[in-house]
Amino acid sequence: MDYRIAIFLLTFCAFLTFAFPFGKKQKIIIIVKGHITCEGIPLDKILVKLVNYRKHRRDITLDTVKTRPNGSFYLKGKVKKTAKLNPKLKIWHKCSTSKTVLKTKLCYLKYSPKTPEIKKIMEYPKTVYTVDYKDVKLKKDKNYGEKDCLRFFQKFINN
């Protein structure tokens, strides 16, 4: 009869260990940096967002910044270790000669450049990846991205 209680307690402890794991769940850190120019001129105060792209689902926003006066940006985000890492950069800008975009001051162009190589720089104690976009060069004669007029109104909602 005593061995049944011992087996029950061992089974119960094993269940608790798997159901409620001890310690913090590890996270993956991703660092993104780069520089944005329009016709060679650095873009100042341009909204840049780092997201973890998920197909057929809403993206997870990892970090949001505005570019510095020299056009550079630095973003840092964390993702759960179990999540698939698929970083994507989103840029809202007005580098265009299109009359429809420039006509309204409320609209921006939302552009997502192709993600360069993702480099793993550290494994232990935390996994850290870096993505260097170097120079994102935009030209006025090409429309980089799609028109996004809701970005203007979100400024007032968030403030």
Percent strand equals 35-45%
- Supply the CATH class: Mainly Beta
**What separation lies between the terminal Cα atoms?**
67 Å
The second-level CATH architecture is Sandwich
* Annotated CATH topology: Immunoglobulin-like
Count of spatially separate domains: 1
The tally of beta strands, per DSSP, is 10
Radius of gyration: 23 Å
Largest sheet: 5 strands, mixed
Secondary-structure content class: alpha+beta
Oligomer: single chain
Question: Which stretches are poorly predicted, pLDDT < 50 over at least 5 residues?
Answer: none
Q: Helix segment count? A: 3
Order of helices and strands: HEEEEEEHEEEEH
Mean pLDDT, all residues: 81
Q: What global shape is seen? A: elongated
Signal peptide: 1-19
Subcellular location: Secreted
Family: Belongs to the nematode transthyretin-like family.
Keywords: Secreted, Signal
Explain what you see:
This protein has 159 residues and is α+β, with helices and mostly antiparallel strands. The chain has one domain (25-158): Immunoglobulin-like (Sandwich). Strands 1, 2, 5, 8 and 9 form a 5-stranded mixed sheet that branches. The chain has a 5-stranded antiparallel sheet with strand order 4-3-6-7-10. It has helices spanning 2-19, 99-103, 150-158, and strands at 27-38, 41-42, 47-52, 60-66, 72-80, 87-93, 108-111, 118-122, 127-138, 146-148.
Question: Which secondary structure elements does this structure contain, and how are they paired or packed?
Answer:
Blueprint: H1 2-19, E1 27-38, E2 41-42, E3 47-52, E4 60-66, E5 72-80, E6 87-93, H2 99-103, E7 108-111, E8 118-122, E9 127-138, E10 146-148, H3 150-158
Parallel strand pairs: 1-9
Antiparallel strand pairs: 1-2, 1-5, 3-4, 3-6, 6-7, 7-10, 8-9
